[in-house]
Every structure is written in structure tokens, then in C-alpha cells.
Queue: 3 jobs
Job 1
Amino acid sequence: AAGRWDDVEKVRKAMVNRGVKKHPGYSWVEVKGTVHEFSVGDKYHPWHEEIYAELQKLNRQMKEIGYVPDTKGVLHDMGEVEKVELLHTHSEMLAIAFGLIAIPDGMPLHIIKNLRVCSDCHTATKLISKISGRKITVRDMNRFHHFEHGVCSCRDYW
């Protein structure tokens, strides 16, 4: 968007006028036979307090090993702090945090996402796999991403 928020607004209005709808992002994780669904900023899950506490812990640990949020893909007219907060509550981050809490240590996490994983979530998931020692598989709309020891099977090409 490079500061062209007037153009962004025009495009969004044109989309509405033409009936074009953007599908919201959802992620799912199965725990003990129950599928749990998450959307960006979701606070409806019964464990949302624990999930957000886990996210805070993960964000702190990621920063300690050099993580810097990539806000270039956040196409909303908001401050940098708000963009970072939005990134940290993407649906796949919520699903991963819940999986880390609810699935026993040593067991892999399997996340399904209906949209493409953004570059920041991809980087964060690599780091979470390193920090947690977990194998994390994320199936997005394009491919399976297998994260282990801080590396993704797509070799950062997706």
C-alpha cells in the first residue's frame, strides 16, 4: 500500500459495489476428537485467556532469538503497534498456541488454514517449532508446510 490509503479505500469500495467478497481467514486444530476453529483476534474460545498468555510467552521467546514482526503485509491504515498486535492474533497463531497448550508435549501439531499463510506467520511458526521442539504442520490453501527445528519444508518458497 506504501501509504496510498486513499487508493486502498477506492479499491475496497469498488469491491463492495461489484459484490466481491474477501473470505475471512480461519484456522482449525483437532484436539481429542474435537475440531477447534479460530479467526483473527478471536476471543470466543473457552481457553482464550490461556491462549493469549501462551502467545505473549511465545512472542517474548521469539524476540529473544531475534524475531522482528514483518508488518509489510498488513494492509490496514493503522499504527505499527496495532499492526504487530494484529499479526500476533492471526488465526494460525491462535490455533498453534492452543495446540501447544492442549496437545501433550512431544506430539506434533496439525493446523489447517483456509487462506495462504502470511510471511510473518510463516517466520513465527518456524521459530515456534524451534522454541517448542514440536513438529508443526500447517496446511494452507497452497501447500503443506512442515516446520521442525526452525525450518520449513517449503524452504521459504510458497
Job 2
Amino acid sequence: SDSTARPGLPGDSRALADAACRALPCPLLSELAASRPPFARRYTAHLQRWAARMQYDAGSGRWLLPDSPEQDWEKLLQHFAGLLQGPPATRESTLRTLNSLKAADGDFEVWGISVWTDLLLALKQQKVV
């Protein structure tokens, strides 16, 4: 056993990461993710769950999360942009995850079919990737 136990996330780390993602500003979350790999995994998983629940509304041309309006598309973009603007390891891991999810979802290159494609397209428009 390692006698120098590293501090981790106490209790239910998924619930804690979810709460942190809703309460803390993106720059702080990105900094935590860059310095704490266990938090980075929970944070990325939270963002993946958030994006996967979004539904595309063709009428408005926007991705929406009907059951949680406070978790909107723009906030989701801010969170991913923060990770992509972090240190190289965080950026590479986040980009690899997004590209993998995009590929698994059909590897589309047009808007409105896959939330993963649209995240990557929006991040490219913002010149983050």
C-alpha cells in the first residue's frame, strides 16, 4: 500500500464533479482538470453525459437540453473550449475524446446530425481547434 496517499475526490466523485461543473467557472474547472487527472476524467465524463442528452431542434437550429435549460449549448462549448485551451496533455486528451465520439456517432461533417460533430465544428469556428 502507498503510505503517501494522494488526495482524491471524496465521497461520490461523480456527484461532486457534476455539482462542480454547474457551480464553478470554466477556467477554474479547466485548471483543476489539468492538475488532477481523476477530476479531469469525471469532468470530461460529465461533459459527455451533458452533450449526449442534448437534442437538436431543427426549427431553431440549436442543440437543447429540455430537462436542464441551465445547461445550454453555449455553456457546453465554453467548458470544452476551456479544456482545449489548457496544457497540451489536456488539450490532446479532450480532442482525442471528441474525435472518437464523433467517429462512433457516424463521423458526420455536416451540422445538425451529431452533437460531437457540431461541437468540433463550433470549436473550429471559434478557432479553439
Job 3
Amino acid sequence: ATGRYDKSGLLFLQFAKLRHIVKKYEASNECYEKALKLQDCNEIEVYYNMGVNYCHLNQAKEALEAFQKCLKYNPNSTNALINQGIAYKQLQEYDSAMAIFNQALKLSPNDSDVYNNIGTVHYAEGRYEEAVVNYLKALEIRPDD
């Protein structure tokens, strides 16, 4: 019987990924929830992907909860931190977003996405010169973007 559940859980994980690709974010998260119940799956990946889906749905509070669960399992996930900061930006909680981005920057000082997001916070706050400095740093790290 356990094999059946394992296969069902894997199927729900695959369905979740496919639904994300076709931008069916709510359906994707429903599949992730079912996968979590059916199998011992990679919680880091599941909660991270659910958080990304919630961001796409402009459900920032739910996204924050998902990223927090992801970070519980892997507190050094730069991608989870960046997306947690993005969720704070969606809520216009710029101080919280900046604190998270600075935490990500300490972990990954050469990550252009961190600098880009710091730039967007400065831009949203009307601090355009600081925004430009961070955008330029992002381009310096990854000039092809």
C-alpha cells in the first residue's frame, strides 16, 4: 500500500510543476498540498514553489508563510530569502524587504538578483540614485541580463 501512496505523491508533484508552467498557480498549490499529505517529499522544494505560486497570485501573506516554512528546513536558501523579500515588497513593507535582501546578500554577495531587488525597493521608495547603483551592480555581475 505504501508504494501506491508514494506513486500518488510523485504524480501530484509532477502535476503541480506542470500546472505552474501553464500558470495555473492555485491548481498547482492544491497539488503540492496533496503531495505533502501523501508522501515524505522534499518540503524545501514544495514550500518554495508554493510561495512562488502565491506571489504570482498576489497573495503575499500566504507566500510569506510558505517561504518561512521553506526557510525552516533550509535557513540559508538565498532563493527563498529573495522571494520572501519580494513578498514583503508586494505588501509594501519595504523595511522588511530590505532586511531580507540584506540577509540574502550576506549569503550570496555576488547574486545579481539580490542587487536588482534592492534596487526595486529603493526605486519604490523614490530613492532613485540608490536604485541605479544597485541596478548597475546587478548588471556588473550578470551583464547579459
